[in-house]
């Protein structure tokens, strides 16, 4: 029996890292702004966690000051 896919949003961790660095922000600072742990954000940025809950996705987008279409273009992983 196949396991169901995990609920959540597939996210591009390396892109988050790139955007965070462009803003000159540390992992600790961005994680704090998002209300998540530094370890969790590091896992996302490394690609160890490819899916996040919709609320976490929204918090990351807000912290990076991304909105609407830019969120989808920059943070969502595109299936090949």
What are its keywords?
single chain, 80 residues, mainly alpha, 434 Repressor (Amino-terminal Domain), two-stranded antiparallel sheet, 2 strands, 56% helix, globular
Helix/strand structural class: mainly alpha
Helix content: 55-70%
Which homologous superfamily in CATH is the superfamily? lambda repressor-like DNA-binding domains
Mean pLDDT across every amino acid position: 86
Strand element count:
2
Query: Structurally, how many domains make up the residues?
Result: 1
The largest sheet, given as strand count, sense and whether it forms a barrel, is: 2 strands, antiparallel
Query: What general outline do the C-alpha atoms trace?
Result: globular
Low-confidence stretches: none
H/E element sequence: EHHHEHH
Range of strand content? 5-15%
Q: Determine Rg (CA atoms, Å).
A: 12 Å
Count up the helices.
5
Give the arrangement of secondary structure elements.
Elements: E1 9-10, H1 13-22, H2 27-34, H3 38-46, E2 51-52, H4 54-63, H5 68-75
Antiparallel strand pairs: 1-2
Helix pairs in contact: 1-3, 2-3, 2-4
């Amino acid at each position: 029996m196949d396991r169901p896919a995990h609920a959540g949003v597939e996210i591009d961790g390396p892109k988050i890292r790139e955007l965070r660095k462009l803003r000159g922000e540390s992992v600790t600072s961005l994680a704090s702004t998002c209300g998540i742990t530094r370890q969790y954000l590091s896992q996302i940025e490394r690609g160890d966690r490819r899916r996040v809950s919709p609320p976490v996705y929204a918090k990351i987008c807000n912290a990076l000051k991304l909105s609407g279409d830019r969120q989808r273009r920059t943070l969502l992983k595109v299936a090949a």
